[in-house]
């Protein structure tokens, strides 16, 4: 075997190595793509699970106890008539409620909440709750201190736009 034949053989083997390397890179990219897709899907599932858990905890906190339910129900209808001790409890309950709204909005903004119809329904329910007479009184007395800014901005803007209609 002469030098020229060895050089050609080396070039051929190098070409095969390049092809194998290219195939390995493509396979790696496909694998990474599959992993990213799975991670995004898992983030969406985790988001849904987190929000479901928050709603379950809120529902259990309010509906499972007659006194807590009475305070919440009275507070959303007539906050001003609540005794101070009940107002304090109502403040925590309604803060928990609107805290869940903030969590939903954050998850939507991050793109991990993939349920547009449910998101719109949650916003609608949040608005309905916000416009209850007791909640409006509570909000006027605590404006700027009780909401996450994004929730407050959304609800105030929504109330103002509804007044124009």
Which SSEs are present, and which pair or pack?
Blueprint: H1 3-63, H2 66-78, H3 84-110, H4 116-130, H5 133-142, H6 149-164
Explain what the structure shows:
- This protein is mostly helical and 165 residues long.
- The protein has helices at 3-63, 66-78, 84-110, 116-130, 133-142, 149-164.
Total number of strands: 0
The radius of gyration is 29 Å
Dominant shape: rod-shaped
Percentage of residues in DSSP E strands: under 5%
Main beta sheet: none
- Low-confidence blocks of residues: none
Structural class: mainly alpha
First and last CA, distance: 91 Å
Series of secondary-structure elements, N-terminal to C-terminal: HHHHHH
Structural domain tally: 1
Query: How many H/I helical runs?
Result: 6
In helices, the fraction of residues equals: over 70%
Query: What is the mean predicted local confidence, pLDDT?
Result: 86
